[in-house]
């Protein structure tokens, strides 16, 4: 059968692998000119480890995982060290969790996908008409084609979701923060550390592929064009204007540079949907059930949802009702569990008040003492 996947990131690449594995003809359209690079290290954990094992890529993910880093200083708003963050506490601490850079996992997934899968970059779906015969797609370049199944793997701001299920505002819930990342320019002496003031985290990290800055900022929803990098940079500049210590001015300059590599900015949000399948259209990954960056479960859910959808659809011979029932039964309790993790992440990653920050730092000091030789 013919399957069209929109989006070539963690969910879309995993789905391409699974649908091709089950013998379907697969086309992937991706809006960007190639696989989108960038991102902080991400976690492959829980049920995704078994999914990766079945895809034959677990050993490679393990081989390319982030090696443990030296403990990182935790700074207050003046740049003075107040605690130490021992990353063993977060990363690769147990067999249930592999941390790997997003770019490496992207490449591993892309290399694993069958050469028979057709990738079309700088391509997207413009219109979608579902009927008993399948889904008639109009592409942005004017082409038209019919598919037995269309899979929206196009992220938090999914356009497949908008076209088939309705507006983003009906499904996406702001989780109270914005996140930004950028690769820091070579030739400057960057110090790995994490600076916190209430509601703002600025960190420099190097997971083996060069220094990278991350910002997490507490904020109510801001109306802006989420596809406009200049608007994103202006917002970020306002967040960073609160701190004038440590390397923050240089980090601010790096984020302001339109030529900087690895720039990423988005709201920290969750997607909640009562159903992920409608007619011959299915959503997976962040488009369907984003768990929010603070959960550490986004990539895991992307990989697992791709497998459960492809397996259910194939087992039920393309019957959408039976597919929806099986996919939902397998995935929904896990999604709920993963989405709940996000509430635990915020008080650790970006404490909201000075008291919460002091308590978090005391916990970091106690943990560092536990790991001390
Ligand atoms: C550049 C980048 C950096 C990221 N960095 C981090 C990070 O540091 N930490 C973290 O936890 N998560 C990060 N994420 C999100 C993380 O990848 C997802 O939460 C998770 O892996 C689920 O993946 P997904 O495939 O569902 O969505 P995404 O990874 O968001 O991928 C969606 C894909 O769909 C494409 N797309 C969007 N709209 C269209 C369209 N209309 N037509 C065709 N294609 C479209 C996008 O270009 C993208 O390739 C990042 C995502 C991106 C794109």
Written account of the structure:
There is one protein chain. With 373 residues, this protein is of the alpha/beta class. The protein has two domains: 2-66 and 99-171 and 269-345, 3-Layer(bba) Sandwich (FAD/NAD(P)-binding domain), CATH 3.50.50.60; 174-268 and 350-371. It is built from eleven helices and 18 strands. It has helices at 10-21, 47-55, 58-63, 102-112, 159-165, 229-240, 248-256, 286-289, 298-315, 320-349, 354-371, and strands at residues 2-6, 25-30, 42-45, 72-75, 81-85, 97-100, 118-121, 125-131, 134-139, 144-147, 149-152, 172-183, 193-197, 200-206, 211-218, 264-271, 277-278, 281-283. Strands 5-4-13-14-15-12-16 form a seven-stranded mixed β-sheet. α1 (10-21) links the parallel β1 (2-6) and β2 (25-30). α2 (47-55) packs across α9 (298-315) and α6 runs antiparallel to α7 (248-256). The longest helix is centred in the last third of the chain and has 30 residues, at 320-349. The model has no long low-confidence stretch (mean pLDDT 93). Bound molecules: flavin-adenine dinucleotide. Flavin-adenine dinucleotide (FAD) binds next to α1, β2 and α9.
Observed structural traits:
373 residues, alpha/beta, FAD/NAD(P)-binding domain, 2 domains, six-stranded mixed beta sheet, 11 helices, globular, binds flavin-adenine dinucleotide
Major sheet strand order:
5-4-13-14-15-12-16
By DSSP (H or I, 4+ residues per run), the number of helices equals 11
The CATH architecture name of the largest domain reads 3-Layer(bba) Sandwich
Which structural class best describes the helix and strand composition?
alpha/beta
Low-confidence runs of at least 5 consecutive residues: none
Taking the alpha carbons of the first and last residues, their distance comes to 58 Å
Number of strands: 18
Tell me roughly what share of residues is in helical segments: 25-40%
Q: Quick check: average pLDDT? A: 93
Identify the CATH class of the largest domain: Alpha Beta
Could you state the CATH homologous superfamily of the largest domain? FAD/NAD(P)-binding domain
